[in-house]
Amino acid sequence: MFGLLGTLVIGCTIFSLVYLYRHYSYWLRRGILQETPLPLIGNFKGLGTTHHLRDIYQRLYNEFKGQAPFAGCYMFMQRSALLLDLDLIKKVLVKDFQYFQNRGGFHNVEDDPLTGHLSNLKGEQWRKMRAMLTPVFTTARMKYMFPTVVKVGKILLQTIDEVLEEKRKDPVLEIKDLCSRFTTDVIANCAFGIECSSLKDPKTEFRQKGIEIFTKPRHHPLLLLFMVMNPNICQRLRMKLFPDDLTEFFMSVIRQTVEYRLENNIKSNDFIDLMIEMKAREGEGISFEQMAAFTFDFFLAGFETSSTTMAFTLYELARNPEIQEHLREEILGILGEDDTELRYEDIQKMTYLEQTISETLRLYPVLAGLIRVATHDYHVPHTGHTIEKDIQIIIPIHAIHHDSDYYENPEEFNPNRFGAEASERRHPSAYLPFGEGPRSCIGMRFGKMQTKIGLIFLLSKYRFECCPLTQVPMELDKRGFFVTSKNGIYLKVVGIKRRVWRIH
What we know:
Distance between the termini: 84 Å
Radius of gyration: 24 Å
Order of helices and strands: HHHEEHHHEHHHHHHHHHHEEEEHHHEE
Helix content: 40-55%
Strand order of the largest sheet: 1-2-7-4
Structural class: alpha+beta
Oligomer: single chain
Number of strands: 9
Number of helices: 19
Shape: globular
Largest sheet: 4 strands, mixed
């Protein structure tokens, strides 16, 4: 008995070792560059503890760039191709998009309906829903939602005034929290059709549930990572991503809003109105679960990304006061001395504001990389190599944005990089904060609009300065998928010549 057991153990051990060797020599056997991986961990040692995704992508990018158009790596057990050549990236995202349509995110619509949003959908289902959702982000829809965002921007100023009144001797504020409360209220109004008022009361239930998405996950971080890396397996196991109480909360909020609007014949020309219209279409209407998932996706995309971009912009402006003054001059010059209302056309004229936000997104792209999954075997142009079906593609945005070949002195904050002439000279795939091609961020226009409105209001009334609590250089959080500050962003806020914004 013991002899048989020993033989089985030895046999299983040999089989496992052979399997791991073959698995982790996949790229090597195909003549493709790879870094020596560790069993089970691959090339992602320290992820979430000592390293963020951006750090690992940067290391691999630095090691292999210039030697080949792409290199092989292993995200734990997932075989991945790290793209290094901008022309190849352009082909994958745009020209040869049909080979890389899917993002590979986990979704289990049956058991976890909020995961069935646009970012996770695949193939024909994604294409159909993308076409249906595109109208909500047209210029006309932006203009409809513009006054709502402006109203929240004015409340942001009122809130800061009240806080500064209480802190006259120490006007230092944690900017990231304020920006997050601003975007929470904007999304609550535009996507859910409710008055959240987290600027007035940061402990509102809607705000707390939004925070819990990122701070109280259903599973341990390693299991969450496994779900992201192995979506098909986890879907077959009927696993869930979000806690049940969080799902029920958002589903309930959307259900109540829809029922109230239908019963009272209310039209607001916002995101929830478009969802109601889509649901009512005969033959091709969406289900309530899909409506909830798409609205939730709007919240996820706009809540964290825009607030982080606003906060990082203010941080860099505080560190670069001459750039801050240049931007303020543009804002006040376009608004005029006596104008008390902000118009949609005003923000379209603020070219230096656009450049400043673009430079922030270069330095601090919210996502360290883009993920795509090959839906068919793809023969890499001008090479003898093939990226096989189901191989994951990684496009290291953060590393590209910090490459001195594309940006001189890449760690320096310089909005002039995005002037018309400089942008025209640069390769289009050297700047990818919103992705590129058919699967680029559908909410880019709305996200930039709310970011600009928030910054316009803040810079027209306050000057932002570094203080002893300002962390220089900024320490970024190594946990999670987004690029964000670890310890908050503290800045001194000083009132300048007062503008009187009318509050309707």
